[in-house]
Amino acid sequence: MVKFYLSQSAVFSFSAIFKRLLFAASALLLITPAIAQQKKDYTLLWRISGKGLKKPSYLFGTMHVKDKRVFGFSDSVMLAIQKSEAFALEIHPDTMISKMFSTLADRDNRRGLRDMLSPEEYARLARRFKQKNGYAMGNNIDPIQLESIMRPEKKSPDDKKTFIDAFLYGVAHGMNKSIYGLENTAQHFDGYFGANSDIKERIRSLVDDNDAEAIDSEEEMIKIYSTGNLNKLAAYLNLGELNDDKLIARNQVMLNSIVSHIHHQTLFSAVGAAHLPGPHGLIELLRNAGYTVEPVKADFTGVANRFNTDYTKLNWKPYVDNQDGYSFELPFTPEKTNIFLGLPSVIYTDIANEVFFGAYAILKGSDTKPADESAVIRSMFNSFKKNQANHIISNKPVSVNGIKGSEILMRTNGDYLRFRILFSNNYLYLLYAGTQLENLYTPYADRFFNSFKTFKITPKANPAWKTFKNDTGAFIVHLPVEPTVMVRNVPSPIVTQSEPFNIKVYMAMDSVNLMGYLVRYNDYPKGTYLADKTKLFDALGNEFKGKGTMLGKPHKIMIEGYEGREVDFKLLDKYYCRIRLMARGNRIYLLMKQNLEEGKALPPGDDFFESFKLIPYKKPQAVTYAIEGTDFTVTMFEKLRFIRDSIPDYRTFLKKSLTTYSTNTGSGGVYGIEHTNISKYYRAANADSIYSELLSRFVPYTDSLLKVDTVVVDQIKGREFISQNKSTGDKRRQRLFIDNDDFFYMATHVADEELFNETSNEFFNSLKKVKDTKHLDLSSSKAAMITADLTSTDSLTYSEAKGALSYYKFEKDELPYVYKALRINYPADSAYDGPGDKLLNVLNAVHDDKTIGELTALYKRPDINDNLKPSILKTITHVDRKKGYQVYLDLLTSETDFKGRYNYDTFVPLTDSLEFVVANYSRIIPLLKNESYRPGLLYVFQSMIDEGKYDEFIRNHFGDLTAFANADLDKYLRKNDSTASDMYLPVYYYMLLMKKVTGQPITAAFTAKLVKRNNIDEQLLTAVTTRIKNKLAVSDVVLNKLLDSVAQRYDLMATLDKTKMLARVPAKYKTQAAFAKLCVYQNAVTNNDDETPGQLKLLGTVADKGKLFYVFSYKYYYNEDDTPELAISGPYTPGSPKLDFSSYHAYEQQAEKGVNWQQQAKKMIGELKKQNEEEQKAAVKK
C-alpha cells in the first residue's frame, strides 16, 4: 500500500504534505508485489551483455521496505552502479515529484469518503483512524491521505531512513549519474490514484483492522527477499502472479526502455524483484531479445557499506531568485511550484534521505509603502499558532547572514517541521525543512538554512512600459519591466502520453505600484492536440480551485477572431486578479493581472490586456522523413513521435498501422500521417470506391463535411476533405491516398489561419514515392486464396485469412469455395468464433438453392465439431424459413447427446418463431431432458410469457416445463462442482414461470429454499417477488433487507404495488423525493449497461403547469472527464402519495457547464413528457 498524505485542515501543513510526498514518491517508484540476505545463491544482480554491447549493463531486483535485513548488498551492486553511466528506476523520481506537485496544486474535493462508504463504514473507519493516530480523521481528508496514514507499518529501531530503491537512487544521484525512468510516470500515478484505479475498493478495505495480516505477509516476503535468491522469490510468487497481465505489460514497457538506453550508455536498472523472474520476466525477455543475461558473482566483504547518501560532502549549487531577492544553496536543483496556497515556492525533495527543504517569498510592501517588520513576522507566527492542529514546540530569535527573524519548531499531527521566518527589504521569507525530528538539526539541514542570503531589488518607475515580443510564442504585450521566465514541465494527464506539457511563464512586477503581470502559453505535447476548446474553457474554474474565490462566472471574449474566457478572481481570498484564457489552434494563452496589496481592487490605467496581440507564426524547420516500412517520404518537423498498433485486428482490410506525429514548434499545430497496408484479401472495384467507403469514418457525427476534392500529389491520386465541428466551429483538413496496397491518411490539428498556409500546404503536398511498389489487383476474386489460406500452418497467414471472412464480400459464384472450406475441420472451431463459424456467417449473407443441403450434410458428418452445430442450425433457418425450420427441427431432435459448449444459437430460431414452438411442442419438450439445453429452452418459453399471447399454453404445460426444477435447484444450492453455476438461469426461469402460473404446489417449497439461504446476491429478490405473487408469506426481516438495497428496491416495490401490499414498505421509501430518486437510479442503470451511478444527489425541484419535477445529479465512475449527469423525474402532483410504477418517468443528459441546473432541468421537461408518452403507448400495445 502506498503512503501519501496531505493535510487539508491545517493552514500550514508543509510537514504533513512533504513527509507523505517523500514516501509516496519513493513508494510509487515501485508499484510491484512487495516481495534482501544470506550470502548463498545471491541472484538479485544480473549482468546484461552481448548483441553488440561494448560494455555490460546491470539489472537489480529491489523491495520497497526500510527493514535493515534487506540492505545487505553484495559488493558487486555498488560497484556496478559506480561503473554504470546511468541509473534507472521504474519511474523517474523527479518526474514523480513533479506529478505530485501538480496534483496537490490542482487538488479538489470531488472524491469524498462519504461517497465511497456507507454511513456505518464511515463511522467505523473514523473510530479506527483516531485509535491508530490519536487525532480525529476530519471531514475533508482525501482518500490518498487516508490510505497513506492508515498503511500498516511494523517499525523497528534499526530501520533504515528510506527504502532500497530510494537509497540506491540517492547513491547514484550522489555520483552524478544520469537518471531515467523506465515507465510513464503519469500512467503509473493515475493507475494507482486516478479515477479508473481501485482506490475505492482499497479505502473500503481500511474499514476493518487487518494490519496484523498485512504485516505478517510483508514479514514473510522480507525473509524470502533477504536470502537474495531469485528462484525462491519466483516460487513464492508462483506463475499466476508472474503471469499477471498488468505485470507482463509493464515488463514489456521496461524492456523497451532498457534496450533503448544500453546501446548508448551503460545502465544500472533497479526494479521491483517481481519483474525479473518467470517466462515473461525481464531476464527472459532480454534473453529472447538476443542479450546474454547472467547473475553477477556475489561477494560480501563490506565494500557496499562504504557507499552512502551523505550529500554534505558534495559541491552544493547556489539557487538565486533575482525577482524576490534571495539565494540559498542545495546539493541538487530544486523545483518551483505553487503547491502551497498558490504561492510560488521553491522546493527540494530528497527521497534518499527522506527530507525536504524549501522557501517562498511574499512582497509585503515597497519603498514608498514599507511594511512593518515585527508586524509581518508576528502575523505569520500567529497564523501558525491559531491552527489547533499545530503545536509550537519552540520559538526563538535567529540571525543569519545579518537577517533577523524567528526560528520555530512545530509538530502537526505527529509530523515535525523547522521554520525560519525572516524579513528583509519588504519581503517576508519563509524557509522550512521537514520529516523526522532527528533530520531537522543535522549538518545537512543547517547547511541549507545558514546558506540563505537576501539582496536589495531596486524598484524602477516605468511611465513608459516595454513592448515584449516573443517570436516563438507568436505574441506581443506591454509590460512594466522585462519579464522573468519560468518553464514548467507538467506531467500529461493523458495516460498514453509520456511527454509532459511544457509551460512557459513570463512574469513582470511593477514594484512601485505593487502590481503583478503574467503571460503563460503552452502547446500540447507532440502527438496530442486540443480536441474540444469548450472543455478547456470550462476547466478554467478548476485550475484555480482551492486557491481563492472566483468573482462571478467566466464570460466569453474574442481576441483577434479567437475565442476565450475572462473572469475576475480573488487569490487566497486576499488579492484581486483578472484572468484571460484563449485558444489559438493547439496553443493556449493565459494572461493574469494581480494587485499585490491585500484587499485592494484592480486599478484602471494600464493597457496590459488590450496590448496583447497575436503575430504570425515563426516558420518551423522542416525535415524529410522516410516513412517506416514503405517506399515513400513526407515532409514533417523535428522530434517525431510514433504510435504503432500493438495488437493487430485481422477483421479489417487495413493492417496494423504506424502513425507519425510532429509538432510545428512555431504554432503548436500537430501534423500527422498514418500508414497502413490494404490486405491482399480485400476486393474493391477501384481505389475511388475505397475512398467513398472510408470518408464517413473520418468525419464523425459531431462534424459537418464541408468539401471533398480529388487531389494529385507525385502522380498519386487521392482525396482531400474539409470538415467542421458543429459545436466549436473548428475546421480540419485531411487527405487520403491509396497507391497499390499502401494507404495513407494525413491530418492536422491547427488554427484556422494555419489550415492552408505555406507550412500546411508544404506538408500535404510532400508525399513522394521514391521507387515503384508491387501492384495490387483490387477487383479480382480472393475467395480461392482466402479459403486455401485457412489451412495454412503459418499462424500469421491463417489469422489474416480468418480475419478476411469478416470483411470480404462473397458472391454467389464463389459459394463452392465456402462449401469446400466448411468440409474441413479446423482446430480453432473448438472455440467460439472459429473459421467454421465465420464461414457460416458468410452463408447468412449470400446463399443459393444448394445451401441447406450442404449444411444438412455438414451437420450429419460424424467428425463435425459439436460447437459448430448451433450455428449450423441457426443458419439453416435464416437461409430459408419455410423449408429450413423443418430441417432444423429434424436435425435438432435427431440426437440426444449434444456436447456443444455454445448453445445460445441453438434455440434462437425457436425464440424467433413461437408459433412453430406451439405447433411442434411434442417434439420440442423432450429436449428439456438435456441439461445443457435447459437454459436456452426455458428462455424460449419465457419469451412466450413476455409475448402475452401464450398464457393458456404455458399454464397447460407448466408441469412439463418445471419437471426438472427441484433437481436443478438442489444442484444450484449445493455449488459443489463447476457446473452448479450453469443452473443459475434455469432456476431464475422456473420462478418466472411460477409468477405467471400461480398457486402451483411446487412454488412454496422451491422459493422457501432460496429465502432460507437469505443471500441477496443469489436470487433472493426473485424468490421473494415470486412468493408475493403467489400470496405466500415473506417475513418483514427479509422484506426490509431487500428494500434497504437500492438495487433491489424498485422491483420489490413494484411487485408489492401490483399486489396491493405497498403498505408494507417503510414510509421513508414512499415519499415523492425518495421515489423520484429511486426512479432516476433505475433509469441510469437501465440506460448505461448496468453501470451504477455514484454521488446521486437531489438538487431540488422545478414546477411546470402545477406539477413537480425532482432534479438530481450523479456521476458514472467510467466518465473520465468527470462531467455529472443531470436527471429529472416526474410529473408529481404536490402532496399526492400516489406512486406510478408504469415506467421510471426519468430522463437524463449531461449537465451543461455554466448553465443553472434549474434552467437546464426546465428544458428537459419536454423531452421527459415525450418519453413518458411513448412508454405509455408501448405499454398499451404490449
Task: Set down the secondary structure blueprint.
Blueprint: H1 14-27, E1 45-49, E2 57-62, H2 75-83, E3 86-89, H3 93-105, H4 113-116, H5 119-133, H6 143-149, H7 164-174, E4 178-181, H8 185-193, H9 199-205, H10 211-226, H11 230-242, H12 245-262, E5 267-272, H13 282-288, E6 292-295, E7 317-321, E8 326-330, E9 335-340, E10 343-350, E11 355-363, H14 373-385, E12 390-400, E13 403-412, E14 415-424, E15 427-435, H15 443-450, E16 453-454, E17 466-470, E18 475-479, E19 484-490, E20 501-510, E21 515-523, H16 533-538, H17 540-543, E22 548-559, E23 562-571, E24 575-584, E25 587-595, H18 608-611, E26 613-614, E27 622-626, E28 632-637, E29 641-644, E30 658-663, E31 670-677, H19 687-695, E32 703-713, E33 716-725, E34 731-739, E35 742-749, H20 758-764, E36 768-769, H21 783-789, H22 795-804, H23 815-822, H24 835-845, H25 851-860, H26 869-879, H27 881-892, H28 908-912, H29 914-919, H30 921-924, H31 934-947, H32 951-956, H33 958-961, H34 965-974, H35 984-996, H36 1001-1013, H37 1020-1029, H38 1036-1043, H39 1046-1058, H40 1072-1087, E37 1093-1104, E38 1107-1116, E39 1125-1132, E40 1146-1150, ...
Parallel strand pairs: 2-5, 3-4, 3-5
Antiparallel strand pairs: 1-2, 1-6, 7-8, 8-16, 9-10, 10-11, 11-15, 12-13, 13-14, 14-15, 17-18, 18-26, 19-20, 20-21, 21-25, 22-23, 23-24, 24-25, 27-28, 28-36, 29-30, 30-31, 31-35, 32-33, 33-34, 34-35, 37-38, 38-39, 39-40
Helix pairs in contact: 1-3, 6-9, 21-22, 21-23, 23-24, 24-26, 25-26, 26-27, 31-35, 34-35, 35-37, 36-37, 37-39, 39-40
